[in-house]
């Protein structure tokens, strides 16, 4: 399943995005598995502790704060919000699927209110919106829901236990070092029978860019270093939500493919989104020859018939509920009154003509 969503104008390769000739388009499709290109070595995915113990330190959170502040300060920053707007609307759709009104909600890493602008006060009466970027909070969009901005790190929520009826998050959790700990905090601030609805980048996101840079750097410099941050696999999310205490879990994945004129536009838009790599082991600079080689490899391996190149984003969606006595529970073990051995007899016809 795929559908065109919108179109935007970008300048040709070699200059920053602006209104000019050339265009990109994007499409959505559903996917339940990750792809691995044969012959290409993928960077290791983000490791997760099975027990949730021990805080990882993968990302430089101070650098991510600077990146997001810089992106939010751009005069034309709205033109980089296309992905956040679309994912925010899909998170809002999942809120609408729940037939209840939420008196108090929390949006973690909400930025410019990419979820709130799609919500109605008939479903959410009051909203707290947090972000690590002060500039993003200052530029949040108007909403019919009364909204209170709070400058706070997603890894340290400054709220009391059992405060919110609903917690949402869109495209923010993939930059958190201690994801299991963050999920436990979300569970803690929810009221019993409260629900968490989140979306994060994961899976094989930007595999085209990653593979092109790896091949180019290996060819030109004799080795490669990571230029795309590690991501969480969809198969890990269910376990993480369960370990955090959530029940009635739902996890699914959308594949978003955006088409750009060239690799320069891909990297420029990532920077404009505030999505540049901030991993501690990143390499700060790329040689010009390496970038040119990566651009050629990207075109050769992934270019579409019209000459554009795709950038793939795997968006992981998750829904989890904080337990409450009113929620449906599985039957007690051993309480069944029908044997599996008797199931085959159910479909056997009964002979009513026998005397």
Mind explaining what this structure looks like?
With 355 residues, the chain is of the alpha/beta class. It has a domain of 187 residues: Vaccinia Virus protein VP39 (Rossmann fold), CATH 3.40.50.150. 28% of the residues lie in helices and 21% in strands. It is built from 9 helices and 9 strands. Strands 1-2-8-9-7-6-3-4-5 form a 9-stranded mixed beta sheet, sandwiched between helices. Helix 4 links the parallel strand 6 and strand 7. Helix 4 crosses helix 6 and helix 5 packs across helix 8. The longest helix is centred in the first third of the chain and has 15 residues. The protein is globular and about 75 Å long. The N terminus is likely disordered.
Overview features:
mitochondrion; alpha/beta; Arginine-hydroxylase NDUFAF5, mitochondrial; globular; SAM-dependent_MTases_sf; transit peptide; Rossmann fold; 355 residues; disordered N terminus
